Please model this.
Amino acid sequence: MEKTKLALLGCGNVGQGLLQIIHDKKVDVNVVAISDFKLGSVFCSDGLSVSKILDLLKEGKTLEDYNCNPSCCQGVMHKGWDVLETIENCGADIVAEMTFTDLKTAEPATSYIEAALKKGMHVTTSNKGPTALNYKKLSKLADANGVKFLIEGTVMSGTPVFNLARETFAGCDIKEVKGILNGTTNYILAQMENEGWSYEAALKKAQELGYAEADPTADVEGIDALAKVVILSNVLLGASIKPEDVPREGISKITLADVENAAKEGMRYKLIGSTKLENGKIIASVKPIKLPLSDPLTGVGGANNALTFDTDLLGEVTIQGPGAGRIETGFSILVDILKIMNS
Ligand code: HSE
Model:
């Protein structure tokens, strides 16, 4: 049987994490194309050598420095296709969309996903923009084309959220989900409480450690968590809400004194994203909440994320794990790929 053909759209941290996992675990897929804004683009109908690509990128070279072995593909490799040209010409079965996120327009990622679905390709994405703004539209398009549109990595990277809800909670009604959906802010609040750092010092360190978005406003003002609340509402609770429907408050006004006073009361601040369905209406928000230490969310340290599902048959179930990272998010894409391959 022919191997499943995979194309990577975007080859930054997440794409390189995915390639590393495919290489290390000898995942049985054929990576036929990779297209990236910064690193260029390469296609080979016989499949690219993943170890050669990883070596090139480690050496600071681009995808266009890649060359096939003389015995490979009889010269039908191609370099320089942009993302849309790659989708049009690569013949992949599955597209992994990992380009940059834009929470205002969700472009160009939405157009890429649409183009791939219309070509009859399955799509997996870790991209919050197109999922928060266009999940229903893209899912319908996938259904109409008989393919899957999977999004495991959009919330809590590879820590299972959507697979857990879809498969392990099958038969349960999820009434509410709430949790810590942003690692940067969790790290900042934890460092303020544990180390007595100021908000500014903790943010600086979170940036140095690579937790924060390129513009950390998205983290500290709750915009990143908001995108995830919208995704959770629309995917798990069947809502059709937009980011502007959700009240949002970040942590930038929380002072060291606030954190210390909360600790004296046996409480702890966490930035909580929550969404629930009440009388057919979605009630969702992102805001800092002072929680009693008996709440499992208060035990979540560092840059970790956590989510409490309130279900009808099990009551509350809380999971915690990484919410970001190269390998962790690469793994979320792998999970979706394996699901598509095994279905
Ligand atoms: N900047 C985000 C965080 C990355 O700190 O959680 C994942 O969306």
Observations:
- The two ends are 15 Å apart (CA to CA).
- The chain has two domains: 4-158+326-342, 171-322.
